[in-house]
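Hey, I'm writing a tutorial for new members on how sequence and structure tokens pair up, and I'd like a real worked example in the thread rather than a made-up one. If someone can provide the structure for the chain below, I'll link this post from the tutorial.
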Amino acid sequence: MHEKGLYVIGNLYVDAEAIQFTYEITHYFQNVKTDYILLPSTPLFREAAAEMAVRLSASLLTDCIALSVDNGRLQGLRPSLDGKSFSHYAFSASAPGKIVFVRKIIHENVSKDIKDAPLIFAGGRGLMNEQSFEALRRLADFFDASVGASRPVVDCGWAGPSEQIGQTGSFVHPKVYLAFGIFGAIQHLAGMKNSQCIIAVNTNLNSPIFQYCDYGIRGDANSIIRNLLQILAV
């Protein structure tokens, strides 16, 4: 059976094992054919998507932030790692299983590079959800600070690749670095340990971030952010 069009898989399998999920979803699409399959950009779905593409002999395009249709072809928009440009990619009609580059868009007026930011408010998985990360953005905006994130936050889609700090992101050296709910994995510490002053907020005193910070606060980052917003009437 072939269902023409786009098949969307929601983020309903957050607790599923990647192997079991991949087996079940691949088996389904071996019997139900469709033109496109859209999955969330999370670690589970990224792992599953790669194996699904192999088993289904399908094209794979990851890390898209927008989709569009041009001349009947579905295109995906992907940001560069520095956030200064975006590229359009399309599924090749003449060569199934391949992705072709369409065009690149350069942003002339980009925000200040986080690498040069003097004040950074960074958030980690300890913020629990996207709403809490948006609250951090509001707090950072009040202080005219740049926003940074750990890799798990970027993987969850709460922050963009240009905001990622660490070995696979940006290396920063601000005057003040505030880490909210960041555990302090070695990959993240490598990108921010040269900050002049590090302030960490975390409920876990055993978090590695506390070994590198100048000031440590044991507490719930979410509550502290909400209280600050309330006090500042932001």
